[in-house]
Amino acid sequence: MKQITVVSDDKVGILADISYILGKARINIESISVQVHGGKGLVNLTVKDNEKAARMLSSNGYEVLSSEIFLVRIKDTPGEMARFTELLKKEGINIESLHVVARDEDFSVHSLKVDKPKKAKNLLGPFLDNTE
């Protein structure tokens, strides 16, 4: 699964503009997170058609980055996140971002971005959510 990140100056209306551009192109936003660092806004998006979304946003003047992410599904119990993150740590895989995208009584689903995606994918097989 791919994630696109829009990098822009932090100013009022960026999210409204991005969602308008994607909506007009009939691209549905599946997940979104927004962060501000040092005067820059970072908007992380997952959509069904990454290439079209990146093209539309780029043609409207936005800087767009693309990266591989995984959806991991873990039991919603104390220590379960430690169990899967310890696997990554032992293999020298750095977590670059981790966001909760869904949760129910028994499980939580997280989007995970790492510095070594191929290695992580092989390692995290039992945790990967294959419903994407």
CATH-level-4 superfamily name of the largest domain: VC0802-like
Q: Please report which band the strand proportion falls in: under 5%, 5-15%, 15-25%, 25-35%, 35-45% or over 45%.
A: 35-45%
- Count of DSSP H/I helices: 4
Uncertain segments of ≥5 residues (pLDDT<50)?
none
CATH architecture type of the largest domain:
2-Layer Sandwich
Biggest sheet record = 4 strands, antiparallel
Spatial arrangement of strands, main beta sheet: 2-3-1-4
**What gross morphology would you assign?**
elongated
Mean pLDDT: 91
Question: Helicity level, as a percent range?
Answer: 25-40%
Tell me the distance between the termini. 8 Å
Classify the secondary structure makeup into a structural class.
alpha+beta
CATH topology of the largest domain: VC0802-like
H/E order of the elements? EHEEHEEHEEH
Number of domains: 2
What is the alpha-carbon Rg in Å?
A: 16 Å
Number of beta-strand segments: 7
Please give the CATH class of the largest domain.
Alpha Beta
What would you note in describing this structure?
The chain has 132 residues and is of the alpha+beta class. The chain has 2 domains: 67 residues, VC0802-like (2-Layer Sandwich); 58 residues, VC0802-like, CATH 3.30.2130.10. The protein contains 4 helices and 7 strands, in the order E-H-E-E-H-E-E-H-E-E-H. The strands form 2 sheets. A 4-stranded antiparallel sheet has the order 2-3-1-4, covered by helices on one side. A hairpin with a 3-residue loop joins strand 6 and strand 7. The protein is elongated. The model has no long low-confidence stretch (mean pLDDT 91).
